[in-house]
Design brief:
globular, eight-stranded mixed sheet, single chain, 20 helices, alpha/beta, seven-stranded mixed sheet
Length: 593
């Protein structure tokens, strides 16, 4: 069983369950002193620090994907909190660190921290410890550039220890009401805290407006900081479009500052829109829409997206929140006469479900109360809705993903159901290959096993998984195992997926398997393909026997430790049952349209 991403990092869970370490104690004194005592790992790489009330996680995610795809730099990403596994917080080159590596760096970091605490009689908070672990990890892994998401506020947040000379730029996505107990009850107060990440003689990118923008501008001027303001030409723009705008402006600045010669030339907006960040307007199992919105402004932005993409769908809302302004959140998000299921996240900060019930009733909704997310999902399904919207908290989104992704599927940054139905048969297809021939399911009727892999030409790993198929084909060519690679979309949807480039690669590598494309949308739907690369294995009767990933490290062929697809092939050839890994990952960074 592959436990590469199982939630068994004992030392981190111990910290997470420690009440005194979970207390919020804003201030940089403790963490600065501790970092000084262990050699200042945060100074050994360049950083971009990302703050703001909403969208900072998404912008961090977009930027790390841009940097990994369009440069040759080694990229780190530190975000919080995680949805399901601690590994999500620590990502290198768009791959979460394994348990083995995280356990090792966490143990070493905690040992250093405890020595510091013993000498100084200080007590670091959980978030300070997690941040130090991230800095240590990125330093040991020789990361070139790290994207660091602020935890809360900015001025006194643990991440704000990065110094101006080590910072490429700062980002303040926006400013609205959240964490009033710690950041203040006025927008001016909150903006002041957010502006604390602005660095002297540096640059800042912001999407803030009005009073908050004035505060940020004043602070930037005081510090001789070049401020780049993102102006939204369309006031109705949704938060995805706004976050993409901030990320692209920042990336342009990073290119200029670091002198990056981009390795790929394509449409970055199309690329970013193809990404799926877990828990952010994230559709699971075709009818469960999960979003991490948790404050009044987040509710407004989610409402815009629902209106844009799912206006005519019959919806049910499942709400679970922490200690937030739940009444305003509910009124900003949920239309009158909606059906709302109120429940609670597993947290001592959870808002009581009865309080949510009262707020939903006050705006004229039909309300059901359930004990937990699992029973709430079951109740929602009984109403037979077209869409179930699950929101209210990052932690709540993580609980929903755990329930809905019944196999705990985990990939770089997302979870998805495997959709395997053992009696599903091979769908029909008829596609053009790079050899200019046409292939259908009938073309492979003599095969003992047929393996179909959905790929994408603009995925950064495309050549890695092409090579995987080449290696497997060589190994099984005498056993009548046939391989088919279906490239993501026709050029009408992805112009950068140049068919001529595919043909050129096929000729250079001497592909012996059909490489197909052109009008593949219906084919993907027929197979139930969601992300790429995605594998479907059919036996000689064309019954689906396996649906999942290539192996545990398909990005790097030389570093594979568990060959999932090879094991599945062997099982079918020898008439044995297939052992499917508990944490079965499907997909890469690209989603089918």
């Amino acid at each position: 069983m592959n436990n590469a991403y199982s939630p068994s990092i004992d030392s981190l869970h111990e910290i997470d369950n420690s009440h005194d370490r979970q207390n919020i104690k804003l201030g940089l004194g403790r963490i600065k002193s501790c970092l000084n005592s262990i050699g200042n790992p945060e100074k050994k790489f360049k950083s971009v620090i990302i703050g703001g009330t909403n969208g900072k996680g998404s912008v961090t995610y977009y930027l790390s994907n841009l940097a990994y795809r369009y440069s040759k730099l080694k990229i780190g990403r530190y975000t919080s909190p995680h949805l399901v596994f601690f590994n999500e917080r620590y990502v290198i080159n768009e791959t979460p660190v394994t348990n083995e590596k995280l356990n090792k760096i966490a143990a070493e970091s905690i040992r250093q921290i405890k020595e510091f605490e013993k000498k100084t009689n200080e007590r670091l908070t959980a978030f300070e410890i997690y941040t130090i672990i991230g800095f240590n990890l990125f330093a040991r892994e020789n990361v070139d550039l790290a994207f660091i998401e602020v935890g809360m506020g900015g001025r006194l947040d643990a991440t704000n220890v990065v110094e101006p000379k080590d910072t490429i730029c700062s980002i303040i996505t926006n400013v609205s009401f959240d964490h009033k107990n710690h950041l203040g009850s006025r927008i001016e107060d909150i903006a002041y805290e957010k502006a604390g990440i602005i660095k002297e003689n540096n640059h800042t990118i912001t999407g803030a407006t009005d009073i908050a923008l004035n505060i940020i501008q004043e602070r930037a001027q005081e510090l001789n900081n070049g401020l780049l303001k993102i102006k939204t030409t369309n006031p109705a723009s949704n938060y995805i479009e706004k976050n993409i705008g901030i990320a692209l402006t920042t990336w342009k600045l990073i290119i200029e500052k670091l002198g990056i010669d981009e390795t790929i030339k394509d449409d970055k907006v199309t690329f970013l829109k193809s990404l799926q960040y877990a828990g952010r307007f994230h559709l699971l199992n075709e009818k469960y829409l999960i979003d991490c919105a948790h404050n009044p402004d987040g509710a407004i932005e989610l409402n815009k997206l629902l209106d844009e993409y799912y206006r005519d769908k019959k919806k049910i809302f499942i709400i679970g929140m922490l200690d937030k302004e739940y009444d305003i959140f509910i009124s900003n998000l949920i239309p009158k006469n909606s059906t709302v299921i109120c429940t609670e996240p597993k947290s001592n900060r959870a808002t009581k479900k009865e309080a949510l019930q009262k707020a939903a009733l006050a705006i004229g909704c039909k309300v059901v109360v359930e004990e937990n997310i699992k029973s709430a999902i079951a109740k929602a399904s009984s109403f037979n809705p077209e869409l179930v919207v699950i929101t209210g908290s990052v932690y709540f989104a993580g609980e929903a993903i755990s329930v809905l992704s019944f196999e705990q599927c985990y990939n770089h940054h997302m979870f998805t159901q495997t959709n395997l139905k053992i009696k599903d048969k091979l769908p029909k297809f008829n596609l053009q290959g790079v050899d200019d021939k046409h292939y259908s399911e009938e073309s492979f009727k003599e095969s003992n096993i047929l393996i179909v892999m959905f790929t994408c030409n603009h995925c950064p790993y495309v050549q890695a998984y092409e090579q995987r198929l080449i290696n497997l084909q060589k190994q099984y060519q005498s056993k009548s195992v046939s391989f088919v690679a279906i490239n993501s979309n026709d050029e009408a949807n992805y112009p950068e997926d140049n068919f001529e480039n595919m043909k050129k690669r096929a000729k250079e590598k001497a592909f012996n398997f059909p490489y197909l494309r052109d009008k593949t949308q219906e084919i993907a739907k027929a197979f139930g393909a969601s992300y790429t690369p995605e594998i479907f294995l059919f036996d000689e009767k064309r019954i689906l026997k396996y649906h999942g990933r290539v192996d545990d490290n398909w990005q790097e062929p030389d570093k594979v430790t568990k060959h999932h697809l090879k094991d599945a092939i062997e099982a079918v050839l020898n008439n044995k049952s297939i052992e499917r890994p508990e944490n079965q990952a499907i997909g890469c960074t690209v989603k089918w349209k």
